[in-house]
Amino acid sequence: MPHAKRWLYLVHRWLGVLLCAFFAMWFISGVVMMYVGYPKLTQAERLAHLPPLRTAAQGLERLLEPADALARAGLAGPLHDLRLAVASGGRAVYLAVPAAPSGDAAHRPRRAPAAVVLDAITGDKLQHVDAERAIASARAFAQDSPAAIDYQGTLDEDAFTHSRALDVHRPLHRLHLGDGDATVVYVSGTTGEVVRDAPLQERAWNYAGAWIHWLYPFRGNVFNDYWTNIVNWLSIAGIVLTVTGTVVGVLRWRFKGRFKTGARTPYRGFMMRWHHVFGLVFAAITFTWIFSGLMSMNPWKVFDSGAAPLRLQAMQGGPLAIPAQAASVQGLLSASSPNTRELRWVRSAGHTLVLAHGPNGAPEVLDAAKATAHTWAPNAVTQAASRLLPHTVMRTDTLTAYDLHYYDRAAHTMTGGVDKPLPALRVVFDDPHATWVHIDPHTGAVLGRTDSHRRTSRWLFAMLHSWDWLPLLERRPLWDIVLIVLSVGGAVMSVTGVVIGWRRLGLKLRTPSPRSASARMGASDLA
């Protein structure tokens, strides 16, 4: 027993020397992340920076109809997606994504295919994104900012572009807008669209926030291939450190009676005493955050259920194709808001529709053939959704308020910036994976899918790590106060551990080992 206790102390001591600095960094950077997230360009931000489409359509040259533009580019097959916006090089373009060769959305590769960019006036394919086109895109994004734009060349990846969602756009053009926020934008090397923006304040705080919290210093360099394992094993080591520290803290705490000093802790030194006290008080939250951080990595794919993909084309009624008697672009723009920034042709529940996106709010839904507002027949969306899986629908719930599994977060957070409209439909399937599918009844679009594995992940990661619990999220600043107090407590525990570890390491380096001391004594005798 004494031998086991000695190993318990040694493991905690030396793991603490190695990891307490990481713990302190994670606690402090976590507070920063509560208010400043990793740079992203949300859908709302992207639309807000696009010029109104009517301005482009009222130019001297008339915009081509989508069928004509696709025919000139030789894109005769079905499509997965088609958009029209002033989005590339400051000009109106069609961005077309061909359908998967199999004709079934379920067999598309997991990485999204690149869009084919077509000039909306000439129909020419715009294949090469050069510096001039990237500058024009940045200037349009800046909305006629008078400052000079500084083109900074191309890159594959930097500190603010590690997201795998950007892989289809690499290489990226980096430009400094020269505006009051010192914004840097990244332009897609494949489509010419602005795909990320990062103001100076966001970039600066990220070095103390998400960039360091997610161990991104190990991304984009020689450690890149090992980043996942580095995060996983550091988290596992952190769990061992927390558990051993809790056991040691309990063993050293006098629950009955007191030590001669009158305290319940045997430690007299300031750092050791407060490390002991704060370690016991904040042991549970430290374990919770380290464990849930590991769960965020989906280590060894423990939350992958192996469920078959949704049969999206079965719900949609086939791939997207422009109707033979399609409404004109002018007609669609006349039927939509003057502030429309993007037209998007979609196939949804057996209908070909056009979503007219403005800078705010839900898109207008138009019939692609008539340019009139589309109205769904009763139960049309739910009946189409039943074809997503070859299993019975147990029930369909209409959500008019957020709940534990369908909720919205602030745009800057890791799970924020994604459209979570209300009302929403929740289609519950009677399949082996207990699948739920959330659908927007306004557009008929699938918003997301969750199953028993992913709902477990929601509890073990989002709930435990970010405290995504509606009673707290809806009562801010209570959520802020709770997380900051817990983070400060964990930081004090960690910083005292750093000081103790530094002193221990220094003492170890200064104290000669018995073997080296004997050697020096022998050398002295010989002299």
Topology readout:
Layout: H1 2-33, H2 43-48, H3 53-57, H4 66-72, E1 79-88, E2 91-98, E3 116-119, H5 131-141, E4 150-155, E5 172-176, E6 184-188, E7 194-198, H6 200-206, H7 210-213, H8 227-252, H9 270-281, H10 283-296, H11 312-316, H12 329-335, E8 342-348, E9 351-357, E10 364-367, H13 380-385, E11 393-399, E12 424-429, E13 436-439, E14 446-450, H14 452-466, H15 470-473, H16 478-510, H17 514-526
Antiparallel strand pairs: 1-2, 1-8, 2-3, 4-5, 5-6, 6-7, 8-9, 9-10, 11-12, 12-13, 13-14
Helix pairs in contact: 1-8, 1-16, 8-9, 8-10, 9-16, 10-14
Description:
39% of the residues lie in helices and 16% in strands. The chain is of the alpha+beta class and 527 residues long. Among the domains are: 172 residues, no CATH class; 94 residues, no CATH class. The C terminus is likely disordered.
Task: Name the structural class.
Answer: alpha+beta
State the shape: elongated
Q: In oligomeric terms, what are we looking at?
A: single chain
- Could you tell me the mean pLDDT? 91
Number of helices: 17
Instruction: Sketch the major β-sheet.
Output: 6 strands, antiparallel
- Distance N terminus to C terminus? 46 Å
Placed side by side, the strands forming the largest sheet appear as 3-2-1-8-9-10
Helix content: 25-40%
Q: In what range is the share of β-strand residues?
A: 15-25%
